Amino acid sequence: MNSSVVLSGVGLWTPPNKITNEELVESYNAWADAYNAEHDADIAAGKLDAKPHSSAEFIEKASGIKSRYIYCKDGALDIQRMRPAIPERGENEMSNQAEIAIEAAKLALADANKTAADVDAVIVSCAYTQRAYPAIAIEVQEALGIEGFGFDMLVACSAATFGMHRAWEMIASGNAKCVLVINPELVSPQINYTDRDSHFIFGDVATATVLESADTVSTDSAFDILSTKAKTVFSNNIRSNFGYISRANDADPFGPDKLFHQAGRKVFKEVCPMAADHIGAHLAAHGYEPEHVNRWWLHQANINMNTLICKRLLGREASQQEAPIVLDEYANTASAGSVIAFALHHQDLQPGDVGVICSFGAGYSIGSLVVKKR
Fold first, then answer.
1. Is 72 a residue of the active site?
2. Burial of residue 17 (number of CB atoms within 10 Å: 0-12, 13-18, 19+)
3. Which residue of the set 72, 126, 157, 178 is catalytic?
4. Can you give the three-state secondary structure of 250-314, one letter per residue?
5. At how many degrees (to 10) do helices 21-38 and 56-63 cross?
């Protein structure tokens, strides 16, 4: 285990557009009514199921989510469209994802008291990338004027922590002195806004972190990364099947099965104990018990998952100060959730305080970092 790698900066870019549960439900229910009216005969004959109504109360009880931010609100609530209306950009224009990545990156660099000249590598790690190539990371590298190299990686909701793992390894091995890890989570295009059970889950955001060698740190708010830990176990319970093979399959590339969908109850039942066991083992490797942890920055998918994981670890419910929740405002932001929690809730920690950054999601995948305030 190597404590010479430091998390020295964090950046959080929040879209200017917001959708409340009430707005989302009003749109969905209107769409459901129109669908049911259009297919009245088939529904009556038992050939189709009627689309059920939703409610803001249902969403909050099921998930803890009250609102979400969205990159482009236009079109998302239009019952004739039910998806964001994002104008296509030309190949000579900056991609949407690079645009938001750069906003978060600039904030993280400023927080770490670093410039582009200090950075050796850029990792863009998120649930979806806008295109296959060239890599969004290389586009960001070019725009920021960073020498060195960049690459994209996809690990669904664990992408941010897995990206930090790769940065940690590069710095610990001496292959880089400073790495910029960015999580531009532009998830709204993959949401099925006509699915009552998933249309409320996600929001858009971009986060970034700066990891560097301990001997170059120039900020007072840095954290030593004591170690990283990752685990993956294959599961079909969370899927997004969009991909280029659909063209050869003669399948609808935007059909419901190509958008985000999950077996939520199975995910809850299987991921919670897996995440708790993973975190417990990671802490034990350092001789720590859960009660030694001052702050839990956990993945922000569902408030009930976080409550159960903390109960399994601590034997009691964690307070908002111990395990801050941000999904009520931001919703599930894929891999960025734990980084948002860190960005908004780390300034009060004192030297020697210990924290855990942990994400978990499709794969299944779990990534964690044990950190200590310098």
1. no
2. middle
3. 157
4. CCCCCCHHHCCEECHHHHHHHHHHHHHHHHHHHHHCCCCCHHHCCEEEECCCCHHHHHHHHHHHH
5. 120
**Burial bucket for residue 219 (CB in 10 Å: 0-12, 13-18, 19+):** middle
Amino acid at 272: C
- Residues 206, 103: contact at Cβ < 8 Å? yes
What is the CA angle 322-364-190, rounded to 5? 90
CA distance 19 to 3: 41
Residue 181 CB contacts under 8 Å (≥ 6 apart), including other chains: 123, 125, 160, 163, 164, 166, 167, 208, 209, 210, 211
**Four-point Cα dihedral 196, 201, 205, 206, nearest 10:** -130
- Report whether 161 contacts 357 (CB < 8 A): yes
| pTM of the predicted model as reported, rounded to 2 decimal places | 0.96
- 67-70/354-361 β-pairing: unpaired
Token look-up 């930090």 returns 164
pLDDT, one tens digit per residue, over 310-362 is 999 999 999 999 999 999 999 999 999 999 999 999 999 999 999 999 999 99
d(CA 273, CA 279): 10
pLDDT tens-digit profile of 288-303?
A: 999 999 999 999 999 9
Residue 94: partners with Cβ closer than 8 Å, 6 or more residues away = 139, 143
DSSP reduced 3-state for 337: helix
